[in-house]
């Protein structure tokens, strides 16, 4: 059945908390979960990250380096279950060639339960930190008498919006796509249009069954682990605790634990990406401080060919230096050939001013580079938290799921970004149906405006400067949150105290470890 730990654990100390971390296999979930495991290991816990083989290849560098630095951090490799209809090599959502495979993929994840159960039974950890998207870990944990803490993937603001929409199912949303409506019961007056709601929340969605299953699993969850800090979502940590009746351990931005250059530049791609990372960072070195817009839409977005061209033309027209990263597109084979040719022409015209990266960029290293002064982002929560950590303002362009909610937070609540102006999303896996959502003129104008390069002077300039200043201040608050004595640092200690007594240990036994919550 399951293979053994790839790193020898040596003797176990009875008073050391042992925590098993099991991520949902999507880059946006694995990457922060690995960081969280490292955070606990650095505070004296014994942390084990459970991954399937292909994800070990991509995501274990952080673990290996943290172990080499003397932390008690380990990998546990579970075989990926084979399932009818799922081709080999699909161990992560971004590896799925088509959306039609998400059913078999979900079934494969359910099949992980047996081997995970035996790992927990054999190793008896003090707690499991599971992604909320693996609902079966809740039943497994309860049966085996181990508390389950749920890593939420997204932030408390988006979680609060989702809860409100689920509970209130506001009347009248169906009547118009474009009328702004109040999301009831939030600390702020937040308005959204139907076109911005997550597909899963819409009436008639087939995802209701899945959402119900997640809610059910949430019931027996001990508490929430969230990649956030209070200043990033003012009032929403407390609000989410109130509406769920469970504690929020806000331990973010977790990306800040990647202090070594290799951790920042290989994150999410492994050492194989080191050469490409070096090329990108060298290009950034040649640019003036704060002059570059970094453009990346996460690991799952696939724009249609026509929208790709609009983005390229917009960046070209903006006259701003840009680093544009993209993976897959939703282009057909003929469109791809034409797009490639067009892209080459565009790269030739912009020359040294722009860099196009096909595949994966060292996002953390790029955002932390002083040349980067803005981030065109899809508002995946990982990206939002990383932008906050780096003090970089956002040009928001949400596509689906929780991304419009995160935009509402960044633009409307904390004011560290401006919207590119996407009023509707793409349906994941059906992007080609949407065509062009934002045109080149708007892209060019908003990029130039945020980066302080707009031709027109006046109040617009001050407004953009205000956004950049608030983003810088957010970065300072983020660094204070994770430093010793900061809120996120304390939250890690408090969660360790919370785990101790739940497992029949006295809190004092835990605090003998010396570094709890001080
Ligand atoms: N990422 C990266 N390089 C890329 C694309 C993404 O390092 O070229 C990382 C990014 O830093 C983030 C994660 O992948 O940690 C993506 O998570 P996010 O929540 O931003 O978006 P998702 O991919 O889940 O939509």
- What count of domains describes the coordinates? 3
Stretches where pLDDT falls below 50 for ≥5 residues?
1-14, 506-518
- CA distance, first residue to last residue: 42 Å
Can you give the mean pLDDT? Answer: 91
CATH topology of the largest domain: Rossmann fold
Bound molecules: uridine-5'-diphosphate
Main sheet strand line-up: 3-2-1-4-5-8-9
The biggest sheet, with number of strands, parallel, antiparallel or mixed sense and barrel status, is: 7 strands, parallel
β-strand percent reads: 5-15%
Instruction: Kindly provide the name of the CATH class of the largest domain.
Output: Alpha Beta
Quantity of strands, as a count: 15
- Please, what is the oligomeric state? single chain
- The CATH homologous superfamily of the largest domain is named Glycogen Phosphorylase B
Q: Helical proportion?
A: 40-55%
Q: Tell me the radius of gyration.
A: 22 Å
Q: What class do helices, strands and sheet pairing give?
A: alpha/beta
> Total helix count?
19
| CATH architecture assignment name of the largest domain | 3-Layer(aba) Sandwich
From the spread of the alpha carbons, the general shape counts as globular
